[in-house]
Amino acid sequence: MRSFRFKISLKKLFVVAVIEVILFALGVRMGIDTFFFFFLVIALLFILDLLLVLANMAVSKKIQLSRECPTKLTEDQALKVELTFRNDGITPIFNAVIHDYLGCADEKKRSFFLEWISPRQVFKLEYGCICKLRGRYIVGPIRIELMGLLGFFSGEGSMGMSEEVYVYPKTFSIRKTPMLVKGRVPWFGVDTVPKSGDEDEFFGVREYHPGDPIKKI
Q: CA-CA 20 to 30 A from 172: which of 21, 106, 133, 159?
């Protein structure tokens, strides 16, 4: 799913409108051509910024994205993402900002600025994070901002591409656990609890928790 919407920076638009009104008023009142010159220059830049954003949004349908990342990890393992950006249009794309979101990262948002993408050009972006905690996380969605030269206007769209990443707890080999005996043992953090059995006894293992009596350690 992809959809782009047109956005206007109202703050910048207000500032430019005030400047234009002042320049025009000074030009009329004082009869100085310099004020009219700057009035026309700013107006032309304003129109140029609008046309460039509209051209960018027209080419946005030709943007092709693909993301490669693992879907299963263990705690403290690195999540490595490779994003491929391709312009399949016949005109260039400029001033594009790509945003991706990594649910398992401390700083979830990742942003990349592409100043110029020629027709048929391919960009590959690599980024990632360390997944510290187990759980289910979402990577994405990817958002793209297409801007002009001055930032009065922009086009913002969602490319979708959300993926699930599962972070599993670390495991260890049972064979590394020493043979348990009945009663308390001197291993730090291990306490055996007898369980009745048919032919032999089984002793469960409980981890040490803060506040446990020191004699049980």
A: 106
